[in-house]
Amino acid sequence: MYWQTGLIKSLLDPINLIITTDEAVVIADKYPKARHHYLVLPKEDIASIFQLSKKHLPLLEELHLLARNIIEIRGESYERFQIGFHAQPSMQRLHLHVISKDFVSSCLKTKKHWNSFNTSLFIPYETLHAQISNEGHIQRLPKDRVDELLAKPLTCNQCAFVAKNMPSLKEHLQEH
Ligand code: AMP
Ligand code: ZN
């Protein structure tokens, strides 16, 4: 589908590139789900995490280095961010999410948005790196597991609060 190639279009326009190296670029997420939300993408045409193998470990390390760089450039602290991949990505071209843990954003609207960053649907960089290193590939989650994770309660990422709906979670996140 055409919308799945939106990231590739974005990274072809130099105006979007905040950092560029020989191997990778950093762009701003067009629909940020927190105060800071960046994507790190390889220049090589790798569709998703499911194409990764051991030969990509140095590239993954470069993506992570750029994630650290963009946080530093923005004058933010590393501990306030989560860095990783969606277990079930929707957009083409491998992309590493670099997102601040506040999750304060008008683009954060649905339970799916929340649970895709705050359950096992989000694979931290270190976890994915270790999995590629040990097993050589990433396996797709079964559909019923994805549905189960998407249906999880709206638990705050900073305390034990469980929200009854997204408006209440968003109000709560503002207070942190
Ligand atoms: P994922 O679910 O991991 O595939 O996430 C795709 C991300 O790309 C989402 O966070 C979207 O907000 C973001 N996005 C969608 N279209 C664009 C675009 N054209 N340029 C930059 N980011 C985009
Ligand atoms: Zn809380």
From TrEMBL:
It comes from the Eukaryota. Pfam families: DcpS_C (PF11969), zf-C2HE (PF16278). It is found in: Nucleus. The keyword Transmembrane helix does not apply. Residues 4-108 form the HIT domain. GO terms for molecular function: DNA 5'-adenosine monophosphate hydrolase activity; double-stranded RNA binding; mismatched DNA binding; single-strand break-containing DNA binding; single-stranded DNA binding; zinc ion binding. Its main location: nucleus. The keyword Transmembrane does not apply. GO terms for cellular component: nucleus. InterPro entries: Histidine_triad_CS, HIT-like, HIT-like_sf, Znf-C2HE. One of its GO terms (biological process) is single strand break repair. Keywords: DNA damage, DNA repair, DNA-binding, Metal-binding, Nucleus, Zinc, Zinc-finger. PANTHER family: APRATAXIN, APRATAXIN-RELATED. This is Uncharacterized protein, isoform A. It comes from Drosophila virilis (Fruit fly).
